[in-house]
């Protein structure tokens, strides 16, 4: 299941996202986040935006005082590096190498600003982000040894 949050009011989006996390996924012993480069981009970005908007962090984001090995986020970029920190491998390239459909057929991260501010096409960005999430899920299952992870029929996206 993929749940999307979209709109033009950042604070409202962050509140809805945080409420879902706090309601359904607030136990760090049972849940964690997964993404590609999530430790260097997504989580720090969301935490900064929460702070700027005077909002509290869900407990899954509260890493103050934790040692690196106590942080349970799963980063597919880190998994692919296998301890090597010399190179960056994009989600598009990693998906291609592992035979997983690429999420970057239409736009990429560098295009989001233009698509939002110039083209005013938020649904296109939502679809791009959902494809990223699905690709990361497929990558994670592949890292766990599944040869054919998640068919399109097994995926449900909701607004």
How would you sum up this structure, described in words?
By secondary structure, the chain is mainly alpha-helical. Helix content is 45%, strand content 5%. Strand 2, helix 2 and strand 3 (74-75) form a beta-alpha-beta unit. It starts with a strand and ends with a strand.
Please describe the topology of this protein.
Elements: E1 2-3, H1 10-24, E2 34-35, H2 38-52, E3 74-75, H3 76-81, H4 91-97, H5 112-117, H6 122-143, E4 157-158
Parallel strand pairs: 1-4, 2-3
Give the termini separation.
11 Å
Instruction: Please state roughly what percent of the residues sit in beta strands, choosing from under 5%, 5-15%, 15-25%, 25-35%, 35-45% or over 45%.
Output: 5-15%
Average pLDDT taken over every residue: 90
Largest sheet: 2 strands, parallel
Structural class: mainly alpha
Low-confidence stretches: none
Strand order of the largest sheet: 1-4
What is the gyration radius calculated from CA atoms?
Answer: 16 Å
**What does the overall shape look like?**
globular
What descriptors fit this protein?
two-stranded parallel sheet, mainly alpha, 6 helices, 4 strands, 159 residues, single chain
Short characterization:
Helix content is 45%, strand content 5%. It contains six helices and four strands, in the order βαβαβααααβ. 13% of the residues are buried.
């Amino acid at each position: 299941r993929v749940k999307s949050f979209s709109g033009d009011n950042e604070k409202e989006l962050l509140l809805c996202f945080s409420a879902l996390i706090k309601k359904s996924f607030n136990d760090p012993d049972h849940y964690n986040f997964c993404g590609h480069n999530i430790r260097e981009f997504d989580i720090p970005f969301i935490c900064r935006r929460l702070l700027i908007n005077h909002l509290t962090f869900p407990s899954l984001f509260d890493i103050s005082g934790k040692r690196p090995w106590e942080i349970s986020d799963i980063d597919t970029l880190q998994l692919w590096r296998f301890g090597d920190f010399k190179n960056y491998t994009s989600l598009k390239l990693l998906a291609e190498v592992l035979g997983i459909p690429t999420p970057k057929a239409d736009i990429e991260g560098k295009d989001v600003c233009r698509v939002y501010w110039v083209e005013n096409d938020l649904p296109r960005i939502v679809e791009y982000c959902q494809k990223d999430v699905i690709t990361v899920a497929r990558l994670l299952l592949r890292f766990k040894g599944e040869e054919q992870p998640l068919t399109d029929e097994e995926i449900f996206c909701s607004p």
